[in-house]
Amino acid sequence: MSDMIVIGGGAAGMMAAGTAAKNGRHVTVLERGDRLCKKVRITGKGRCNVTNNCSNLQALIAQVPGNGRFLYSAFSSFMPADTMRFFESLGVALKTERGNRVFPVSDSAHDIAEALIRYAAKQGVQFETGRAVRLRTCDGAVCGVETEDGHLLPCERLIVATGGLSYPLTGSTGDGYRLAESVGHTIVEPKPSLVPLVCHEGFCSDLMGLSLRNVTLRAFDTQKKREIFSEFGEMLFTHFGVSGPLVLSASAHMRAMERGRYTLSIDLKPALTPEQLDKRVQRDFGENINRNFINALNGLLPKKLVPVIVRLSRIPASTKTNQVTREQRQKLVELLKDLRLTVTGFRPVEEAIVTSGGVKTAEVDPKTMQSKKISGLFFAGEVLDVDAYTGGFNLQIAFSTGHLAGENV
């Protein structure tokens, strides 16, 4: 019989289970899905950005926009370097890429998932399929969990590591919030984070499927009148607006979403100054001197983007290149350096990579991850009201909180 149960067989749950079992606990992982670490297997487009090679604790905490200080003990006890050593000791070779993002050398998220499962199994962790629907408490302490099929699993300690609401097909359907709330915990309203953005401009649907590489995306808060994000990379146009790595990163900085509050600016040619870009445009026009304006941009822009830029430039498409005025050309350059979008909202939370919100951190002991309300009840990972920017930080939160909970049961 297990004296400890972990609800959720994801990144946080597997780390917690393996750590607790290594320290002598008899552990059962209760996973409602048909496969362990299901969400881990699809993170980073299947490559798994396992952590961020950040050695500075304060810099790490700064990547968590809400409740970062709550993670001080968790991060201190299990830093990114510990995560890297952990996986490398399990035979998973790692590499560090741009932005200190850490991936398996194999570029396979399955290697990370299988390593976690191997680790837990080696420590003697048992695995059971079932959905937890109710927590049992006895005299203010956890004493068991009831499953959907009517079974009661008794335990002395229990860790809730069920994830948030993002990617419900992987099992993250908010079960942990309901379980925590049922025993008196406060749930901060879950909201999407690292999520595609809905935009006002109709031309987004015209550009659906167009991927822009090597662009700079900036985001602005029009209420506070300041830039809140700027990064170089890749993004994607969709039927509703924009998505892709840059957009997901930008979305995490939009903490007070309301229609029209945030705007995006795309620099389509970040490697060129406005003056250099103007010379490039003049050269292209010179090589297409008797052609229509719309036909002179194919060397400068993706084919799908050309008619949209022509329309936004307000230069008639049939204008000969040698008739484009200097003023028109300069406005074209401004447009290419600052293509604007108005954000009207987030896509649904189910489409988010992570969830903002969850179990209120003031009700959890940050030094142990134990509930301040119910003895023997612990939390780990995304079920807590902590989320970070993209770059491996959210998985690091899962590993750090899972390890701390596992050490303290």
Report on this model:
The structure is a single chain. The chain has 409 residues and is α+β, with helices and mostly antiparallel strands. It folds into 2 domains: 4-192 and 355-408, FAD/NAD(P)-binding domain, CATH 3.50.50; 196-346, no CATH class. It is 28% helix and 25% strand. The chain is built from 12 helices and 19 strands. It has helices at residues 11-22, 57-61, 72-77, 80-89, 109-122, 175-182, 203-206, 245-251, 274-287, 306-313, 326-337, 393-408, and strands spanning 4-7, 27-31, 51-52, 94-96, 101-104, 126-129, 132-138, 141-147, 152-154, 157-160, 187-193, 197-199, 211-221, 226-237, 241-243, 262-267, 339-346, 354-359, 377-379. The strands form 5 sheets. A 6-stranded antiparallel β-barrel has the order 12-15-14-13-16-17. The two termini are 16 Å apart. The model has no long low-confidence stretch (mean pLDDT 94).
**How are the strands of the biggest sheet laid out side by side?**
12-15-14-13-16-17
Helix amount:
25-40%
Beta-strand percentage range: 15-25%
Rg, please?
A: 25 Å
Tell me, briefly, the overall form: elongated
User: What is the residue-mean pLDDT, rounded to a whole number?
Assistant: 94
CATH architecture classification name of the largest domain: 3-Layer(bba) Sandwich
CATH level-1 class of the largest domain: Alpha Beta
Number of domains: 2
Distance between the termini: 16 Å
The major sheet is characterized as: 6 strands, antiparallel, barrel
- How many strand elements? 19
Detail the poorly predicted runs: none
| CATH superfamily label of the largest domain | FAD/NAD(P)-binding domain
Structural class label? alpha+beta
- The name of the CATH topology of the largest domain is FAD/NAD(P)-binding domain
Quickly count the helices.
Answer: 12
